[in-house]
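Sharing a chain and its predicted structure for anyone who wants a worked example. Both blocks are below, sequence first, C-alpha cells second.
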Amino acid sequence: MRLLLDTCVFLWLTTEPDRISRKAATALDDPANELFLSHASVWEIYLKSQTGKLKLPLTPSRWLTGQLAVRGVADWPVDLESLHALLELPAHHRDPFDRMLIAQAKAHAFTLISPDPWIRKYQPALLW
C-alpha cells in the first residue's frame, strides 16, 4: 500500500509516536507499505518553523532530510496532475495543505494517513 502521511502524522512519527492510532501505526510499521511525505507538508513544516510555531533541533532542511532517511519516507512532489485534482475538490475545508494532500491521494492512488475529521468529507482512501 502507498501511504501519504499528513503533516501532523509525520511530526508525531518523529516525536510523539503514541499519538498515532494503533491501526495507522501498524500500517506505518509494515515493510510492505511505501511511505510518502508531500512537498506540501515539507512547505508547511518549513513555514511553521520559520514562524516559531514548530521548534526543531536542527535547521528545518537538515532535520527533515534526516527524518525522511531514518523513517524510510520518500518525498512526493506537487505535480500538475495533483493541481488539476485540487480544482475538483468541493470547498469543505479551507486548509490549503490538507486540500493538496487530498488531491494528491486521489490523483495518485495513495491511502492518506490522517486523524483530521474534515478530510473524511472528501472521501479519499483514508486510514486512521
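Comments welcome. The chain has one domain: 2-127.
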